[in-house]
Amino acid sequence: MLLLSYVSRTLLRVGLVMTAPKPSLSSWAAVVQMTVSSDLAANLAQAAKLISQASARGAEMVFLPEACDYIGESRQQTLALAQPLGGQTVGEYQRMAVESGVWLSLGGVHTVTEGEGVRTGNTHVIINKEGEIVKTYNKTHLFDVNIPGSVSLSESDYVTPGASLPPPVPSPIGRLGLGICYDLRFPEHSQALVKAGAELLTFPSAFTVTTGQAHWESLLRARAIETQSYVIAAAQTGKHNAKRSSYGHSMIVDPWGVVVAQCGEGEGVAMANIDLEYLHTLRGNMPVQHQRRPDLYGKVEIQKETSMNINSCSIKSKETSVDLPEDDYVFNFGPAKVPGPAIFYRTSQTVAFVNKKPVVEGHFLVSPVREVAKIGDLTSSEVADLFQVVQKVEGFMQRFYKVDSTTISIQNGPLAGQSIPHVHVHILPRREGDFAENDDVYKELQDHDKVKTGWRTEEEMVMEAKLVREAWGKHC
To answer: Is residue 139 flagged as an active site residue?
Structure first.
């Protein structure tokens, strides 16, 4: 069964966004709705058919529900069927990703937990179209619920809870924040991911019929509205065995809270256009995240450990570099656009790129991925990552340009000379006699991008970045 729901959003946006912007950062996502059983082979065949359908319709990323490998008929069978992450089931999904040419979100597979004899992991796995595992997340909020006469389930008896929340994952459709099913009920989970830069939130699920009828759509739309994000929720549906049934109604919700694609009941695929330009316009017109009051109720952010080596190019942390962007990628640097090939280093939270209007040769910029105007608007994890990248870039710069001094500067607000309302750090190599007076560098930083002449073309930026990328591997 296939149900696509294209809901008109224009009237709902009157007064905030008069007309939907023409998509320039547009892609297609698909949610797959399954009815799995304890038969692994049948489940994989079902998934392959639905993934193929989604791919044929133009999906760039396909989202599968929680328990897309199987749902056991007993606790003993559930444990017996579990495999390691590198096992045959995930391997089959990796093959499907390659064959269909799409990214896959496996919304939850049962993974063998080291040292656990009676519990499995519930692991969300992101696979790219080359069949590589890009990111995993283990479900952190477990469904321990007792509704007399309706639902009684204690997930913690047979699932090991996850211990960390990974930062958003860059993907062809945007930056994905990962969750699973019951995580949906905890808004802090979503807020932490959005603070870290998520544009889409994923909640693959196997909601019970009782809780699904009562809360499923309301929760998904609430998370979309309060975070101004796309919410993508693939779901299990129907009867899995004599003891277990799921609600279904897989859906995609846009940042305004409109359900833009939905399956009803039964197996199927639903697809929606993901328009990141619309998302960022909406966030800009109603800047909810910037208007939060952490001074009143505290900050919500991803917690992670970091450790650094003072040798700048040898920084070790859980926030590691990610692949450089494709040629058609565009980084929204405030109102400016930075072409992907002009970026020479990035993590999931920070990018480093060459300058369109450099003050001196080798004048680089480092900026958080998430667009905020002031450094005080960054989370502690974003600040830590930003300055780790600054340290790394500065160390590379000294070796590459054979200098022993650099200027590192932040213009935090218009009166400080900031012309792009997106936090960024200037890093400049210093050479003997580069300015008449040493502190003239700060006047140049204040004035350089206010002069109409001297701006470089994108081709010149890309050419410099290519040289920096090639040298980066040798020096870092």
So the answer is: yes
Q: Nearest-CA neighbor of 32 among 84, 100, 82, 98?
A: 100
- The amino acid occupying position 62 is V
Q: Which of 139, 356, 363, 392 is flagged as catalytic?
A: 139
Residue 201 tokens, joined: 């939130």
Model's pTM, two decimal places?
0.64
135, 392, 424, 448: the active-site residue: 424
What does the radius of gyration of the chain's CA atoms come to, in whole angstroms? 24
Residue 68 and residue 111 in contact, taking contact as beta carbons nearer than 8 Å? no
Task: Determine the 3-state secondary structure of 291 from DSSP.
Answer: helix
Question: Is the Cβ–Cβ distance between 342 and 462 less than 8 Å?
Answer: yes
Four-point Cα dihedral 190, 195, 198, 203, nearest 10: -10
H/E stretch holding 230: strand 230-233
Write out the H or E segment, with its range, that includes residue 280. helix 276-285
Burial class (CB in 10 A: 0-12, 13-18, 19+), 157: exposed
Check if the beta carbon of residue 204 is closer than 8 Å to that of residue 233: yes
How far, CA to CA in Å, does 427 sit from each of 202, 333, 334, 357, 392?
36, 17, 19, 13, 11
Helices 458-475 and 380-401: crossing angle in degrees, nearest 10, is: 90
pLDDT tens for the 476 residues of the chain, in order: 444 333 334 333 333 333 332 333 689 999 999 999 999 999 999 999 999 999 999 999 999 999 999 999 998 999 999 999 999 999 999 999 999 999 999 999 999 977 777 899 999 999 999 999 999 999 999 998 888 877 777 888 889 999 899 999 999 999 999 999 999 999 999 999 999 999 999 999 999 999 999 999 999 999 999 999 999 999 999 999 999 999 999 999 999 999 999 998 899 999 999 999 999 999 999 999 989 888 888 888 887 544 333 344 544 444 455 678 778 888 888 888 899 999 999 888 899 999 998 999 999 999 999 888 999 988 888 899 899 999 999 999 999 999 999 999 999 988 888 889 999 999 999 999 999 898 898 888 887 776 766 788 989 999 999 999 988 866 55
Residue 66 annotated as catalytic: yes
| Distance, CA of 301 to CA of 288 (rounded, Å) | 16
Closest CA to 207 of 263, 284, 255, 258: 263
Q: Which of 60, 68, 135, 181 is catalytic?
A: 181
Residue 348 three-state SS:
coil
